[in-house]
Amino acid sequence: MKNIKISLLVVLLILVAAGSAFADGGNRNGTAGATQLLIPVGARGIALGGATITSATGLDALYWNPAGLARSAKATNITFSQMNYIADIGVAYGAVSTNIDGFGAVALSIKSLSMDGILKTTVENPDGTGQTFKPEMITIGLTYAKALSDRIAVGLTANYISETLDLVKASGIGFNVGISYQNLGSIDGLSFAIVIKNLGPQMQYDGTGLLVSAAPSEYLRNSQLYKVTSQPFDLPSALELGLGYNYKIDVENQLNFSGVFNNANYYGDEYKAGVEYSYNKSFFVRGGYLYTADVDKNQVFGFSAGAGIDYEADGYDVKVDYAFRNAKFFSGNHVFAVSLGF
C-alpha cells in the first residue's frame, strides 16, 4: 500500500509539472531552444521509433524513461553508442551505472555532438571572414531510480546542458522524471509508463560575442562597446504516455508491442509505435514508426529498424545493437551501440 501511495504521488507531481510546462503549448511551437536534448541515443530505442518508455531497462532506459534503470539485469553496466545524425552531425554517447543494495540504481551519462567547422560571418563580411568555428554541445546526466515493488519503478534524471557557439555560451539544467508499471491490472505482460522530459528554467546565451562597437550619432564621443542582451528560451519539454505488451509465443520466442503518445511545448503531437521480436532472449529484430501531427509531407523522421545480439557467459553480459532511421531531406541515421554488464 505504501508503494502504491508513493507511485500515485509521483504521477500527481508529473501531471502538475506537465500542466505548468504546457500551459501555452500550442502558442510556443518552434520557440524552444536546447534542441540537442531531442536527439535520441541508444540503438534499441531508435529502432523502435522511440516507443520504448515501457520496455527499456538498464542503461537503455536513461534517455527514454529513467525509471527503467531500476530494472537493470546486472549490478554494473557500461554502454557506448555512436550515431551519424543529419547534416554530418555525429552524436557520441556513453553511460555507466551501478545498483546499490537498499538504495537503488545510479547512473552517469554524457552525450556530445560533433560538427564540421562553420564559416564565420559579420555585418562587414556577410560572405565570411575566412575563419571557422565548431559548435560544442554537451549534455551530462545524473540518474537515480528505484523499484518500489516488483511492478512499480520510479526514476529521476538531472541534466546539465552546455552549448557553446564561438564566443557565446548558454548553460542550464533540466529534469526528466518517469514511472513505469508492469503487469497492469494483473494482466501478465501489460505495462504502462508516464515520463516528463526537459523540465527546467529558461536558458540564455551570454559572452563576448554579444559585445558590439558603436558610437552615438548625435554626440562627440568615441565608439564604445555595448552588450546585446539575448532572449531567454525554454527547454523543449515533453510529456509522454506509453503502453506496452509482451506476448510470449513459446519458451524461446517473444513479441513486444509498444506505443507512445508525446505532447510537447515546442512541436506537434507525436505518435510512436514499435515491435520487437526476440529469440531465446539473445537475438532481436526491431521496427518502429514515428508520426508527427500537423507536419504533413515535411515530416523528417518516420520508419526505423534494427537488430541486436545479447550474449551472456561467466556472469558477463555483452550486447551489440544496430539501428537505422530513415530521414527525409537528409541521409538516414545509422546507430551502433555496445553494452557490457557484470
Question: What are the salient characteristics of this protein?
Answer:
mainly beta; two-stranded antiparallel ribbon; 342 residues; 2 helices; Porin
Helices and strands, with pairings:
Elements: H1 2-21, H2 43-47, E1 76-84, E2 90-100, E3 104-114, E4 118-119, E5 132-133, E6 136-147, E7 152-165, E8 168-182, E9 190-199, E10 211-214, E11 224-227, E12 238-248, E13 253-264, E14 270-279, E15 283-292, E16 301-313, E17 316-327, E18 333-341
Antiparallel strand pairs: 1-2, 1-18, 2-3, 3-6, 4-5, 6-7, 7-8, 8-9, 9-12, 10-11, 12-13, 13-14, 14-15, 15-16, 16-17, 17-18
- The run of helices and strands is HHEEEEEEEEEEEEEEEEEE
Main beta sheet: strand number and arrangement?
Answer: 14 strands, antiparallel, barrel
How are the strands of the largest sheet arranged?
1-2-3-6-7-8-9-12-13-14-15-16-17-18
Termini separation:
33 Å
Mean pLDDT: 90
CATH homologous superfamily assignment: monomeric porin ompg
The CATH topology annotation reads as Porin
Shape: elongated
Characterization of this structure:
The chain is mainly β. It has a single domain, classed as monomeric porin ompg (Porin, Beta Barrel), CATH 2.40.160. Strand 12 and strand 13 (253-264) form a beta hairpin. The protein has two helices and 18 strands.
How would you summarize what this structure contains?
The chain has 342 residues and is mostly beta strands.
